[in-house]
Amino acid sequence: METTTTNRLYKPEAMIFDMDGTLFKTETLLIPAYHELFDRLREENLYEGETPPEELMLSCLGMLLEDIWRKVIPDSSEAVRRRADELLLELELAGLKEYATELYPGVKDTLEALSERGVRLFVASNGLEHYVKGVAEAHGIHHLFEGIYSAGEYLTASKVELVRLLLDNHGIHSAWMVGDRSSDVEAGKKNGQAVVGCAYAGFGQGPELTGSDVLITSFKELIRLYDQAEKS
């Protein structure tokens, strides 16, 4: 499948990346941590019954954690959801050291190539601060980013707000928002930026990426897109 372009792209000052489903193959960490999380909740008498389907959790990637738990464990109390937050972070940070987690193919090389071209690189994620930074550190890409922004650190209510804060803090006027969910498309468009939709992850398919300026089927396509983009 070839890159699908719907709008003309101009060379940006910066690229802003979602983490889960864009840079990081989230399921390599999330699935084992997710099952262990519910084992712990049952041990602590905070949850009864079977673990909700892992597909349900994967379908929520890109949402704020509080919205994820409302969908995954809708009948649980606020206290149980807060405990789930704590356990998930604990298990994921441990899992980054224990499990064979993966970035998508070509992520590190592509980020390095973009950095060499003078592109300013950032992350904007709806995840928790220590998780998002932990993934970047575990996979040796932390140093490539000028800033790693997370909803968990900045307490933003939406990715639109998080990206606006990032743009303002760093004086960025032109950027590509690169992500795999509708929240990424919205964050780019509502902040007046181009959007590159990532159609390779399997989570953000179909209507999720409607409104993107271009769709890519591998991360490495970003280099060609940047090199062929017009100067603004």
In short:
With 232 residues, the protein is an alpha/beta fold. It has ten helices and nine strands. The chain folds into two domains: 4-23 and 104-228, Rossmann fold, CATH 3.40.50; 27-98.
Descriptive report:
This protein is of the alpha/beta class and 232 residues long. It folds into two domains: 4-23 and 104-228, Rossmann fold (3-Layer(aba) Sandwich), CATH 3.40.50.1000; 27-98. The chain contains ten helices and nine strands. It has helices at residues 27-43, 54-59, 65-72, 78-98, 107-116, 129-138, 151-154, 159-170, 182-189, 221-228; strands at residues 4-5, 14-17, 24-25, 102-103, 120-125, 147-150, 175-179, 194-198, 214-216. α3 (65-72) crosses α4 and α8 crosses α9.
